[in-house]
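Note to self: the last two entries modelled the partners one at a time, which told us nothing about the interface. This time every component goes in together.
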Amino acid sequence: MKNLILTAILAAGLVSTSCQQQGAVPVKEDTTAKMQWFEDAKLGIFIHWGIYAVDGVGESWSFHNGQISHEDYMAQAKRFTASNYDPAAWADLIAASGARYTVITSKHHDGVALWDTKADDKSLVKMSPAARDLLTPFAEAVRARGVKLGLYYSLLDWSHPDYPNIYRNGPARYDIAAEPKRWQSFLDFDMLQLKELQDAYRPDLWWFDGDWEQSAETWKAKELTDSLRTWNPACIINSRIQGYGDYGTPEVGVPVVRPEDRYWELCYTINDSWGFQHKDLNFKDFNMILRTFVDCISGGGNLLLDIGPREDGTIPQEEVDVLRRLGQWIGKHAEAVYGTRAGIPDQHVKAYTTLNSTGDILYIYLPYKPLGTVQVKGLLDHIKNIRVVGSSLAPSWKIFNKQSWNDIPGLLEISVPEEALDPDMTVLAIEMDGPVQVYRGSGQVITFNE
Ligand code: GLC
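The predicted structure of the combined assembly is written out below.
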């Protein structure tokens, strides 16, 4: 019997890391303590803001892929105004969404910095009528609301004269192997910018991107991450640095199978674009986003939900609405969001599940309105109580089919009062008298009967 029992809380804590880089395998330190806030946070808000919002073209990729010339792309900077930019309102919205952290594009692959970089002249401070550092007031506003700050930074910079390429299919500027000093000067430039960001903002999280064009050795990923961790041992680094980060970042595609990474975060768009695009009206509705969010947390991950402000700093209403409604739902169901861990295997109940951090409460999220009872199979040990989260109305429940001649748990049937149903997603809390354990066998033939 024992080998058929899975103590779910232990299973959720299994450490496993994936490493894509070739050559030396990075040594994984025990990051449990430093990852705690991230693992508990569950929701982050991603912000893609840059000159691409002016004409609503794809961030950086539009010139890289040849849809627009590099010159026309960069010329958007002249019309980037930030004229209605209200960092306090952005921070209010992020806090109201229930997010505990935010990640903003300090510099995308186009190389245009949102802060007053001294490393080169490519910043909105120098290139645009906004003519000011846009990052500092945002960093201050989010921190004042207790929201952790993450900085997105593109390692590659297709606009930089010392980066080896600019266009996907165009000629390379140079060959790294033939001009190692030139490549080193680019790495020095990245390090200079990262140090500026560190000194000015002390980010809680580094969100790298663009690592795929070079190997870990070429990026000197070990030296780079060692520096970041020397500057701030508590910083968290995403995985996009060729195997040297702390957590996985599946993108847009919602994981079907729980990712191998102990810590992970799905980055996700509300429509089909990261940055603002006038023509993209393919917004997902709130319930779709909510399900995706709960899907992530049931697999032990976070959701990093993206918004794309316009060039003037206003945020599309559809995105504002999704964030506000998410915040309302999370506010009502806070105990079933923050600090939860991955749930039990899918076969036990036709719904999403998570566990609380001590493992003795099983949360069940009902994505559909139940037409009858909610059935849960294979729950071992004793149920102390069952509640509907955010409601004072008690569900009734009963266990059927428990046989005295074997140890297989009976079938739990929960009846949820109609008035207790949440209009978006109802959450049940099953309180057990110890860590949740589940039976994972396929039944047993009779050995005796009464
Ligand atoms: C991709 C893209 C980029 C976007 C990012 C967000 O890697 O290069 O445009 O910023 O994903 O996850």
